[in-house]
Amino acid sequence: MEIWLVAFIGGISGSVFMDITEVQLSKHGISSGVKGAYIGRWFYGILGGVFMHKDIAKTKPINNEARIGLLFHFIVGGGAVALLYPVFLIIIGFETISNHLLLSSIFGLLTGVFPWFILMPSFGWGMFGTKAPAGSKPIISPIISHIAFGLGIGATFMLYYEIIA
């Protein structure tokens, strides 16, 4: 049971790592074009039965969409997606490793497909963000930020095992 709790907390930590990485990347002109407000707008749409948008930027804004997007990002994107990390370890046969940084980074890299095949198409931006806002880098940005997500998961696992060992 504890591995699932550590994975969930690791996902939230990974989301923090991801957000910090995205802020730093954007300072260097590398951005996916995804904004917290868009994620909130998308989540609100899902609750209303709308999963796909023509262009999320042109969808009517909602109150507190940036806060809603942040909460959705941390709980679902961070915590829930990270619950796949123990499954990943079991599938590859490494559920008892003590150094998680490499495998969690690989896991993070693998989760980089979610923006390409789920988020960006749902925003109306096409697969791989081919219709993302001008100037965005929808291929490279998710790769880098999701590796940071994985590192956050791995760091949480290593910290947890360091404390209980």
Q: Write the H/E string, N to C.
A: HHHHHHH
Based on Cα principal axes, name the global outline: globular
Task: Give the helix tally.
Answer: 7
Domain module count: 1
Kindly state the percentage of residues in helix: 55-70%
Assembly state (oligomeric): single chain
Summarize the biggest pleated sheet: none
Taking all Cα atoms into account, the compactness measure Rg is 16 Å
Query: How much of the sequence is in beta strands?
Result: under 5%
How many runs of DSSP E, i.e. beta strands? 0
Amino- and carboxy-terminal Cα gap: 17 Å
Parts with pLDDT < 50 across at least 5 consecutive residues:
none
Structural class: mainly alpha
Mean pLDDT value: 94
Topology, element by element:
Elements: H1 2-27, H2 36-47, H3 65-82, H4 84-92, H5 101-111, H6 113-123, H7 140-164
Question: How is this structure best described in words?
Answer:
This protein is mostly helical and 165 residues long. Helices cover 68% and strands 0% of the residues. It contains seven helices and no strands. The protein has helices at residues 2-27, 36-47, 65-82, 84-92, 101-111, 113-123, 140-164. Helix 1 (2-27) crosses helix 3, helix 1 (2-27) packs across helix 7 (140-164) and helix 5 runs antiparallel to helix 7 (140-164). The chain is globular, with a radius of gyration of 16 Å. The two termini are 17 Å apart. The relative contact order is 0.21.
